[in-house]
Structures are given as structure tokens and as C-alpha cells.
Structure prediction request, 90 residues.
Amino acid sequence: MAHTKAKSTTKLGRDSESKRLGVKLSDGQIAITGNIIIRQRGSKFMVGEGVKMGKDDTIYAVKNGKVKFTTRKKINYDGNRRLVKIVNVV
Prediction:
């Protein structure tokens, strides 16, 4: 018996499911405790006050308030500086 169909099959076409990453609550929106603000891979956004980071780098609110994004210069381990975005709930 043949292990592949005789006609119109392909070994291509396998695609992974999208992970739905990105910003879920934008600047100025109301956040309730436990709301996910950002889903990310790696720490593109850093945590500020009123938020915490989960083990998969998800940033979520730990208190009620408005979401506020700020930028700041951060020094890397090699001495270079870069701009980082910080997420706060105020």
C-alpha cells in the first residue's frame, strides 16, 4: 500500500499558529488588576510602577489605574546606551 495519496497532496503548507503578541492596552486606557498590557518575546518593554512581568515576559497590571508609557536611557552591560520603553500603571 502506498503511504501517500496518489493525487493533489503536498508536503508543504504547514504553518505555525500566530501567538497574538503586541500591545493590548495603549497609553491612557484604564487597566484593572490582572489585565494584560503587553505580550512580548524578550524584554522590549520594561516594567515600571504598578506592573509586573510574567515568566513569558508578559507585562500585566497589579493595581487599578491608567496605563502610561515613558522612555528612558538604559546602559547595557557592554556600556552602550539604548532607549527603553517603560510601562506604568498610575
Q: What stands out?
A: The domain at 22-89 is CATH 2.40.50.100 (OB fold (Dihydrolipoamide Acetyltransferase, E2P)). The chain has one domain: 22-89.
